[in-house]
Specification:
Blueprint (H helix, E strand, L loop, with lengths): L1 H9 L1 H8 L2 H12 L1 H19 L6 H12 L5 H18 L10 H16 L1 E7 L2 E7 L8 H20 L12 H8 L1 H22 L3 H16 L2 H16 L4 H25 L13 H4 L10 H8 L3 H15 L4 H6 L9 H22 L14 H8 L4 H39 L4 H10 L3 H18 L11 H6 L6 E6 L4 H16 L4 E6 L12 E4 L7 H11 L2 E3 L3 H8 L2 H10 L3
Parallel strand pairs: 3-4, 3-5, 5-6
Antiparallel strand pairs: 1-2
Helix pairs in contact: 2-22, 3-6, 3-13, 4-5, 6-7, 6-8, 7-8, 7-10, 8-10, 12-13, 12-18, 15-16, 15-20, 18-20, 20-21, 24-26, 24-27
C-alpha cells in the first residue's frame, strides 16, 4: 500500500496540472457563479410543490407566480453560464496576453451570451388571435443549453484574443473618452464571435436539421447513457475520491464535464415528478449528496467512528473537532487532520465508500421505487436532510440513508482500527522513550502529530511546492517580539477555498482572534473563481489547501494588485481554524 501511495505522489504534479487547466477552471468557476440561480429557483419550486406533499392546496395564482420565477431563473441558466464562463475564461486568458493588451471581460461576457443564443435557440413564427408573432423556443435557454454555453464562451474569448493580440480593432483619437473608445475597440471581436457562432448555427441546422445544442446532446447521448450505468456512476465517484486522496480537489476536475447532463437529468426528473410519474434518472446534480455523503470520501460517519471506537488520542481529537463540519459536508478538518489524504490506510475506504453509496442509490431508484433527485439543495445541506428533501420527502429515502450510513461504517471501521493501532503503538513508543506512563503518551499525542500524519501532510506540500516552484507561506519563525511589532491593524483578509465552506472556518477564526486580541482585522470567506471582482478590496488573500494548486495563477494577480498571498499547509490550515489567537499570530509572522 505504501508503494501505491508513493507512486501516486510521484505523479501528483501531473494531476495538479490537469486541475489548473484553464478550460476546466472556466467551466467550474462559470457554473459556480450561477449557483444562486440554481438554489434560488429551487426555493420557489419547493414553495409551489411542498404544501401538496402534506395535503395543503395553495391558490393557483401563487403556484403560477412561483413557477414563473423558476422559469425566469433556472429557465435561462444556459445564457447566464455562457456569460460567467466567458468572464472567467477571459481572466485566465488575460494572464497570458502580451503586456499592454487586455481583453474586456464585460464585452466577452455579453458576446458569449449572444453567441449562445445563436447556437441553442430556435426562432419561428406563429399566429395568435389572427396576428403573426415571432417566437423563441426556450427549451435550450436553460440547463439543456449548457454545452452550447461553454462552446460559445470559448469561441468568443479566442476570437477576442486573436483580434486584440493583432490590433484588429477600431482605434479612435486619444481625445475620445476611454469608455467610448473601448466600445469601438470591441466591435470587431464582438462581431467576429457572433458571426462565427451564427455560421456554425446555419451549417448545423442545414446539415442536421437541429440546433447546435441538440446536436451535442445527440452526439454525446451514448456517453451520457453509459455514465448512468453502475460502472459509469462508480467510475465518476472513484475518480472524484481518487483525485482528492492525492491532494487535488476532485470535484473541480470531474464535475465540470458532467454538470450539464447532471442538471438536465435533474430538471427532467422534476418534470416527471410534477406530472405524477417516477423520476428515474440517477446521474443528477444532487447525487453528490450520496457519493460525497459528508464530503468526498463519504466521510459522514467517520468522525463518530473515531470518537466511539478509536483509542488513539489523536484520532479522538480529530473526530471531536470534525464532527460538526463534516455534517455540513466540510470535511477538510478530517482530510488533513487524521489525515485521510495520502494515508495508505485510507485509500481503499476513501474510494470505495462513495462508490458503494451511488450503487445502492441507483438500485433504490431502479428497483425499490425511490425517486431520483428532483429538487436542488445547497451542497452544504446535511446529506440525510438533503436526500430526504430532493426525493420529495419519501420515507424510503430515510431507509436508504440508514443503509448507506451502516455500509460506510462497515467499510471504514477495519481500516480505521488498523490505523488506530499503529498510532497507539507510536504513542506508546514515544512515551516509553521519554520515560512517561500511558497518560503521558496521550499528552504527547495531543501536542505532536504522529509521524504518518507529518509524512502524509509533508508529501502533499512538497509536491505542490515543487509544482509551484515557489515557497508558499513557509518562512522562518521570527522572534516573538518582532512578530508582535508587525502592524496588522485595519487589515482586510479574504480566505478562498473551492466552495466557501472551508474558507469560512479560517475567516471566522480570524474574526474571533481579532476580537480576542483587540486587533482591527476584517476577514471574509469566498470561493475561488468568484474572487476576481472583489480581490482588490483586500490586503491579504489566503488559499485553503484544496485550492493551493492555483497558487501561481493567483500570485500573478496578487502581485499586480500589491496583495499579500498566503497558502498554509493542510494540517497547518486546520490548526489555525481551531486557534483564533494563533491565526492572528500567523498573519503577523507572514506579513512582509
Amino acid at each position: 500500500m505504501d508503494a501505491i501511495v508513493k507512486m501516486l505522489e510521484k505523479h501528483q504534479p501531473f494531476f495538479e496540472k490537469i486541475s489548473r487547466n484553464i478550460y476546466l477552471q472556466a467551466i467550474k468557476d462559470g457554473f459556480l457563479g450561477c449557483m444562486p440561480i440554481v438554489l434560488t429557483s429551487s426555493i420557489f419550486l419547493l414553495i409551489a410543490t411542498l404544501p401538496g406533499v402534506v395535503g395543503i392546496t395553495l391558490p393557483q395564482p401563487l403556484i403560477d407566480w412561483c413557477n414563473k420565477l423558476y422559469n425566469f431563473t433556472m429557465g435561462v441558466m444556459g445564457i447566464m453560464v455562457a456569460g460567467t464562463t466567458a468572464k472567467n475564461f477571459t481572466a485566465s486568458m488575460n494572464r497570458r496576453m502580451p503586456v499592454g493588451k487586455v481583453l474586456n471581460d464585460g464585452s466577452t461576457m455579453v458576446a458569449a451570451q449572444c453567441s449562445m443564443l445563436l447556437l441553442a435557440v430556435t426562432q419561428f413564427t406563429t399566429k395568435l388571435n389572427g396576428s403573426e408573432l415571432s417566437v423563441f423556443d426556450c427549451t435550450s435557454m436553460g440547463t439543456r443549453g449548457l454545452f452550447s454555453a461553454y462552446i460559445a464562451a470559448f469561441i468568443t474569448v479566442w476570437v477576442y484574443k486573436f483580434c486584440v493580440s493583432r490590433d484588429l480593432t477600431i482605434k479612435l483619437p486619444k481625445e475620445v473618452p476611454g469608455a467610448i473608445a473601448q466600445n469601438f475597440r470591441d466591435i470587431i471581436p464582438f462581431g467576429g464571435a457572433v458571426i462565427i457562432c451564427g455560421i456554425i448555427d446555419v451549417v448545423v441546422r442545414n446539415l442536421m436539421g437541429v440546433p447546435f445544442s441538440e446536436l451535442l446532446i445527440k452526439l454525446l447521448s451514448p456517453l451520457f447513457t453509459a455514465a448512468e450505468t453502475y460502472p459509469g456512476l462508480i467510475l465518476i465517484q472513484a475518480a472524484t475520491a481518487f483525485f482528492w486522496f492525492i491532494g487535488v480537489h476532485g470535484p473541480s476536475i470531474v464535475q465540470p464535464g458532467i454538470d450539464p447532463i447532471r442538471l438536465a437529468n435533474q430538471a427532467e426528473n422534476l418534470q416527471v415528478l410534477l406530472a405524477g410519474g417516477h423520476p428515474a434518472h440517477s446521474l443528477t446534480f444532487n447525487m453528490s449528496l450520496v457519493g460525497e455523503f459528508g464530503g468526498t470520501g463519504a466521510t459522514f460517519i467517520v468522525p463518530l467512528l473515531l470518537i466511539l471506537f478509536m483509542k488513539s488520542k489523536q484520532l479522538k481529537a480529530v473526530g471531536k473537532a470534525s464532527i460538526v463540519p463534516v455534517a455540513f459536508a466540510v470535511n477538510e478538518p478530517l482530510l488533513f487532520g487524521a489525515p485521510m489524504i495520502l494515508n495508505p490506510y485510507m485509500l481503499i475506504p476513501f474510494v470505495a465508500a462513495g462508490c458503494v453509496n451511488v450503487s445502492v442509490a441507483k438500485f433504490f431508484i431502479d428497483n425499490i421505487g425511490m425517486n431520483g433527485f428532483s429538487f436542488v439543495v445547497p451542497w452544504a445541506t446535511p446529506a440525510p436532510i438533503g436526500i430526504f428533501i430532493t426525493t420529495n420527502f419519501q420515507l424510503i429515502a430515510l431507509v436508504f440513508v440508514a443503509i448507506i450510513i451502516l455500509l460506510d461504517a462497515i467499510i471504514y471501521l477495519p481500516f480505521l482500527k488498523a490505523y488506530d493501532k499503529m498510532l497507539c503503538d507510536q504513542e506508546a513508543e514515544r512515551a516509553a522513550e521519554l520515560g512517561l506512563e500511558s497518560d503521558g503518551a496521550a499528552a504527547i499525542a495531543a501536542s505532536t502529530s504522529a509521524p504518518v500524519v507529518e509524512q502524509a501532510t509533508a508529501s502533499v506540500e512538497t509536491t505542490v511546492a515543487a509544482a509551484d516552484s515557489k515557497p508558499v507561506a513557509v518562512q522562518p519563525e521570527p522572534a516573538a517580539d518582532a512578530s508582535a511589532k508587525k502592524d496588522v491593524d485595519g487589515l482586510k483578509v479574504l480566505v478562498l477555498c473551492a466552495g466557501a465552506g472551508t474558507s469560512a472556518m479560517l475567516a471566522n477564526a480570524i474574526k474571533e482572534g481579532a476580537a480576542q486580541t483587540g486587533e482591527n482585522i476584517a476577514s471574509s470567506a469566498g470561493a475561488y473563481g468568484q474572487h476576481t471582482a472583489i480581490m482588490d478590496q483586500y490586503d491579504v488573500i489566503v488559499l485553503a489547501p484544496q485550492v493551493r494548486s492555483y497558487y501561481n495563477d493567483m500570485k500573478a494577480d496578487t502581485d499586480r494588485l500589491g496583495i499579500k498571498l498566503l497558502a498554509p499547509r493542510g494540517k497547518e490550515y486546520i490548526d489555525l481554524t481551531r486557534d483564533p489567537a494563533g491565526a492572528i499570530k500567523w498573519l503577523r509572522e507572514n506579513l512582509d
